[in-house]
Write a structure and sequence with these properties.
The structure holds two protein chains of two kinds. Chain A is α/β, with parallel strands linked by helices. In chain A, 41% of the residues lie in helices and 15% in strands. In chain A, a hairpin with a 2-residue loop joins strand 8 and strand 9. In chain A, helix 6 runs parallel beside helix 10 and helix 7 (125-135) packs antiparallel against helix 8. Chain A is globular. By secondary structure, chain B is α/β, with parallel strands linked by helices. Chain B has 27 helices and 24 strands. In chain B, helix 2 (76-91) runs antiparallel to helix 3 (101-110) and helix 10 (352-362) packs parallel to helix 21. Classes of the chains: A alpha/beta, B alpha/beta. Chains A and B meet through helix 17, helix 18, helix 19 and helix 20 of A and helix 2 of B.
Chain lengths: 502, 690
């Protein structure tokens, strides 16, 4: 009897949810052919097991080893496409997730992979850059800088060597799309880097992968090796070498210049700009440092055209955004949609409200340095400019939902302490300021706040915003200042010493 | 280009930062981390400014100027930010002590009267007292990293790094190369050049002598007396004593840098065992005598020896640490009073081959270019020299050039520090210089890498040289030198084609049987390729003593008069007669080795050795000691009871460079006035006069 083909993600989050236990339990079963795939990104459903059917993929959710008979007989499965969480998304970058085996190069190709690269190789480098310009693509790492401008500058700067660097540091807690791409669709990242190399005339590429992603790094290395063996990395007659370099536990190495310092073997400390990396980056050569997701978006743009990409989204935020829902949302997971929906719509349509027993209190968008949004502020459209106007950031698309049990003073203290711990220490506003901010919050927590402390916090916050060398110090005050703005009661109740003279 | 700062039109050079342009225009912008000697860093965030058309408050030190830029360095926002940033700096200083002077000064200027933070955490209490010359106290530090950057960018030793990250980050000396343990400055690669101490804005790094004696109240410009680089220093003086030596930023050869010797090695000036009075030998004891008695004794002894045994019974060995004025007078004493040319100096045992070789080839035996040409060279060739150890400031400049991308070729049997970083290291066997250099010449000839117009217009004897190098193929020289032929080809091509190749050489070329020929072979490479007589080129001997060049220049040589003029020159002879009233002796005098032979044979009976420890440093010490013992009357003039002084009949105490005021000819061939001090010591100058 032919064994049943079952699909199971080997994504790290899926493994954390129990996929590994299923694999261990079932690997000796002769009637089961277990195929490990990328994850769907609906993590509230993991472990997910899928099976082919005449109507498409059938899926079983939150599976335990005993569910095998049920699955084998096809009972109680659901069509994966019927899940609202997935159906309501417009997945292009993540279109193949859940379907493919990450390291199957021919499968990648047959599903449309490398069309972008082939198109790019047939165009002049200038035409490639023009296509990116038409697409309106802005960097997905957080700075949201127009991608084509960086490529243009790097192309035009004369140098004996140029580099393409994928920023895979993904340090924001609650973000995981880069990890998913590296673990689940590594050839897409490689393709995006190759297109960039073609456009700027680069000779080498690097993937700077955070130390905490061992599976992603291993998968990338294997994918690169396979791509090289298949001749995929041949560019302009030479083999474009890509090396995976592992980080060493530093959040600030997600900042592009600190990343370059680390890549060069130095301490991960921020460089002053100018010069910008596109002009003088790695070893002083023109370098494109872009987020993994940015590179993963590129192949589709070349394959389908920049105009296609620009047809989605808003006026100044084109294409799709990949959000990563987490925290106390009922349905945490990866959401790819065009720019323009509101935060509220995302939380309702995809997050489906709160975990039972939790009441919404606030949501933080953009990582540990993001602004806090109370319930009254959720009607903001998700696009770069609306957020910038509100003094907020989209960052890398992380959305963390907090419930009634979250004490805003403790959250503020925690996030300020995070900055203090991760500060590279080069500039004084961040190095000292983050510690001062944390100390004030600790005193407030201990009931020893003084009358002038909130004002001091604001003055300190203004100073860090305006005077810091990079966005770590620059954004550090936002969580606490938005917390004070929207949840003053949390602070007042702690500050029983309001009016207390020091 | 024109930019506007605070409403004023200011002229800026392209490549300037806004901070630099403001500084040049005399507009003061506060900073802790900026330095004229270091690349912009952008960490202190005090130099913020506002630029029209640009959002925010960028740091002026990392903002390049643009034509027509409109900058404001004093706005309400900028001043408030500066106030708050300085307040953060002050908040981490230990309580109960005074803020470092620089922070006090900034606080006054920015109106910071108190720190608003309650019980803020302080800097880590850490002191490094391992280095004998300075201490590091983290309590006073502001983590500006100027010390680390100085060690990287100026000295090129990379002994320091910033340690950890975040609030506690501070400078630390690297691990010991011996055992890998980071114990402190003394265990690391630190060479105690003191660049970090000079850069430190707050005194976290401070000289021990300052801590002991207090900060200087005045400074006196002087030149270091240790080596041929001739670093300019500002000697810090307090209560009549020197309390520190700070390299001068406008020193033409050192430009604000120094090495351990000049920077810290000057306290010998006050050593308790300095010779203070003339001493006369009485058996195995020394009797203190007066200056008058000493001078009378010298005069009578030398007169007696000359009258009884002739002018060749007496000689002088002069000091390569003496000033030009003093050395000229010693020459005059020998020629006009003693009637001979029996005077020599230590050039005899080091660069005399340079003197001969360069006189023969170029007609002049001093460096053809100045130290500044290191900045203009497009390739640097170092032959038989180890400047990072012997001329550290020049070594540092070579390393800086190399970091800027200037190729470096080192010819040396040892794997020196420069050899390790060099683009090409020709590691030849000792004694094979001529073979190697002629092999390079062969390549230049074979591949026609000449500068034909230069050869035609400026040289002669080209055909002879071609003949001489025709046999020296790199392949045939390889078994002699041990250097692979392909390296020789590469070195020759690179040297010839760079556009401006600068050569530096040392005793690895000259202290050889065929030293002069080695120098000539080197000169010929420069002549054949036109790498001489223009910026960034030349043949540049690294002279050791601070005034060995000068001592030879002013005539402390048995074979030349001052200025290397010929002793046979008739016009010179009549000039000498009319100026001094005495004839110029024409008989060649004794070189130092000749003096030893003559002393052992009993012909040389009297000798005056000034500031030169022959009994310690000359070759063949057994012979030197035998010679000294055999003399009838030996006068030794020195700062300390040196090994040579122990042989003396009469000892005269000397004045150190910190106690004189005269000129030296150092690598830059320039003069510098020194530091004058009242003392019981006589300078050589006044001594000879009497």
């Amino acid at each position: 009897m032919k064994p049943t083909r079952l699909y199971l993600a080997n994504d790290t989050s899926a493994m954390a949810a129990g996929a590994g236990r299923l694999a261990d339990a079932w690997k000796e079963r002769p009637e089961v052919q277990l195929v490990r795939t990328s994850a769907r990104g609906a993590f509230y459903l993991e472990p997910v097991v899928e099976q082919d059917s005449p109507h498409g993929r059938m899926a079983w959710f939150n599976v335990s080893p005993d569910d095998l008979p049920r699955i084998e007989s096809g009972l109680e499965g659901r069509l994966i496409d019927s899940i609202p969480f997935l159906r309501q998304q417009t997945r292009y970058t993540f279109a193949n997730f859940g379907m493919t085996e990450p390291l199957a190069l021919d499968a990648y190709q047959s599903q449309g992979g490398y069309k972008g690269l082939i198109t790019a190789l047939d165009m002049s480098p200038e035409a490639v850059i023009e296509e990116i310009k038409t697409s309106g693509l802005r960097g997905r790492g957080g700075a949201a800088f127009p991608v084509w401008i960086k490529w243009q500058i790097a192309r035009q700067t004369e140098a004996d060597d140029k580099y393409v660097v994928a920023n895979a540091d993904e340090g924001d807690a609650g973000t995981y799309c880069d990890r998913m791409i590296m673990e689940g669709d590594p050839f897409r990242l490689i393709e995006g880097m190759l297109i960039c190399a073609r456009a700027i005339g680069a000779t080498r590429g690097y993937v700077y992968c955070r130390h905490e992603y061992p599976a992603a790094a291993a998968t990338m290395r294997t994918a690169i090796r396979k791509a090289m063996e298949e001749g995929v990395l041949d560019l302009n007659g030479a083999s474009f070498e890509i090396e995976v370099i592992i980080g060493a536990g530093s959040y600030v190495c997600g900042e592009e210049t600190a990343l370059l310092e680390s890549l060069e073997g130095r301490r991960g400390v921020v460089r002053a700009k100018p010069p910008y990396p596109a002009v003088a980056g790695l070893y002083g050569r023109p370098t494109i440092v872009s987020n993994v997701l940015t590179f993963a978006t590129i192949p589709n743009i070349l394959a389908r055209g920049g105009a296609w990409h620009a047809s989605m989204g808003t006026e100044r935020s084109r294409g799709t955004i990949v959000l990563q829902l987490g925290g106390r949302a009922k349905q945490p997971g990866l959401v790819e949609i065009p720019f323009g929906r509101t935060l509220r719509q995302v939380l309702e349509q995809f997050g489906d409200g709160m975990v039972p027993g939790s009441r919404f209190k606030a949501v933080q968008v953009g990582g540990p340095l993001g602004s806090l949004f109370p319930e009254s502020k959720l009607d903001i459209p998700i696009c770069y400019d609306a957020f910038a106007e509100a003094g907020a950031i989209l960052g890398h698309g992380g959305i963390v939902v907090y419930d009634q049990d979250t004490d805003m003073v403790e959250l503020s203290r925690h996030l300020m302490a995070f900055t203090a711990d991760e500060s590279c220490g080069k500039c004084t506003p961040c190095r000292v300021g983050s510690v001062r901010g944390r100390e004030i919050l600790e005193r407030i927590q201990a009931g020893q706040g003084r009358a002038e402390d909130l004002e001091l916090l604001h003055d300190l916050g203004d100073t860090m915003k305006a005077a810091s060398l990079c966005a770590l110090g620059g954004r550090a005050p936002y969580p606490v200042l938005t917390a004070i703005e929207h949840f003053p009661k949390d602070f007042r109740s702690k500050q029983s010493a309001f009016g207390h003279q020091q | 280009m024109n930019i506007t700062i605070n409403g004023r039109t200011v002229i800026a050079d392209p490549g300037d930062t806004v901070y630099q342009a403001a500084k040049k225009a005399g507009i003061k912008v506060p900073s802790l981390c900026a330095s004229d000697h270091l690349a912009s860093f952008g960490s202190c965030r005090l130099c913020l400014c506002e630029i029209q058309g640009q959002a925010g408050t960028p740091a002026s030190c990392t903002t390049p100027v643009r034509h027509g830029m409109v900058v404001r360095t004093e706005t309400e926002q900028v001043n408030r930010l500066r106030h708050n940033v300085l307040e953060l700096y002050l908040s981490e200083q230990p309580s109960g002590t005074e803020w470092p002077e620089e922070l006090q000064r900034l606080a006054l200027g920015l109106g910071v009267k108190r720190v608003r933070y309650s019980r803020p955490s302080k800097r880590v209490m850490y002191r490094d007292e391992s280095n004998p010359f300075f201490i590091f106290d983290n309590a006073l530090c502001v983590s500006c990293a100027r010390c680390v950057r100085a060690c990287d960018e100026i000295q090129g030793t990379h002994a320091l790094t910033m340690f950890a990250r975040g609030f506690v980050t501070r400078p630390i000396a690297g691990a010991s190369p011996r055992n890998g343990i980071a114990g402190g400055f003394a265990d690391s690669n630190c060479v105690a050049c003191g660049a970090c101490v000079k850069e430190c804005p707050t005194g976290a790094l401070t000289e021990r002598t300052i801590l002991q004696h207090g900060a200087p109240t005045t400074t006196v410009r002087t030149t270091c007396a240790y080596c041929g680089v001739g670093c300019a220093f500002d000697a810090g003086v307090r209560d009549g004593r020197v309390v520190n030596m700070v390299p001068a930023d406008d020193g033409p050869s050192n430009r604000g840098h120094a090495c351990m010797k000049g920077r810290f090695g000057w306290t010998y000036n006050e050593a308790h065992d300095r010779l203070r009075t003339p001493l006369l030998r009485r058996g195995d004891r020394w009797e203190e005598i007066s200056w008058d008695a000493a001078l009378d004794r010298i005069a009578s002894e030398f007169t007696h020896l000359k009258e009884s045994h002739g002018a060749d019974a007496v000689g002088v060995i002069s000091s390569s640490r003496g000033t030009n004025e003093e050395n000229y007078l010693f020459g005059k004493f020998v020629r006009c009073v003693m009637g001979s040319n029996n005077i020599d100096n230590c050039a005899r045992v080091c660069h005399s081959a340079t003197v001969t070789g360069m006189m023969e080839t170029l007609g002049a035996s001093a460096a053809t270019n100045s130290i500044k040409d290191i900045d203009r060279a497009k390739l640097i060739l170092v032959v038989g020299a180890n400047p990072t150890e012997s001329h550290p400031v020049v070594g540092a400049q070579i390393k800086q050039a190399h970091r800027r991308g200037v190729p470096l070729i080192v010819v040396d049997p040892r794997r020196t520090e420069l050899a390790r970083i060099a683009d090409l290291h020709l590691q030849l066997r000792p004694g094979t210089n001529v073979a190697l250099l002629n092999a390079m010449g062969h390549v230049i000839a074979k591949e026609s890498l000449f500068d034909h117009p230069f050869i035609a217009a400026r040289t002669e004897g080209f055909e002879d040289w071609l003949k001489a190098v025709s046999e020296c193929t790199p392949e045939e020289m390889e078994p002699i030198t041990g250097v692979s032929a392909h390296l020789v080809y590469q070195a020759a091509r690179d040297y010839a084609k760079s556009g401006a190749s600068l050569s530096l050489h040392g005793l690895g070329v000259t202290e050889h049987r065929w030293g002069s020929h080695g120098v000539m072979a080197l000169c010929n490479l420069a002549l054949a390729t036109g790498n001489i007589g223009k910026p960034g080129t030349g043949i540049n001997p690294l002279r050791g003593q601070n005034n060995v060049q000068g001592a030879s220049d002013v005539g402390c040589l048995p074979t030349y008069f001052a200025g290397y003029q010929s002793l046979d020159d008739l016009a010179l002879a009549s000039l000498h007669q009319s100026v001094t009233g005495r004839p110029l002796p024409t008989k060649r005098g004794m070189k130092t080795p000749d003096m030893w032979d003559a002393a052992i044979a009993g012909r040389l009976k009297g000798l005056w050795i000034i500031g030169y420890d022959v009994a310690q440093t000359d070759p063949n010490l057994k012979k030197v000691h035998q010679a000294l013992r055999n003399l009838k009357f030996l006068v030794v003039q020195d700062l300390f009871m040196s090994e040579t002084a122990k042989f003396a009949t009469l000892i005269l105490p000397g004045a150190s460079f910190l106690e004189r005021k005269t000129a030296l000819s150092q690598i830059l061939n320039g003069g510098y006035s020194g530091f004058a001090k009242l003392s019981t010591l006589r300078t050589g100058f006044s001594l000879i006069g009497e």
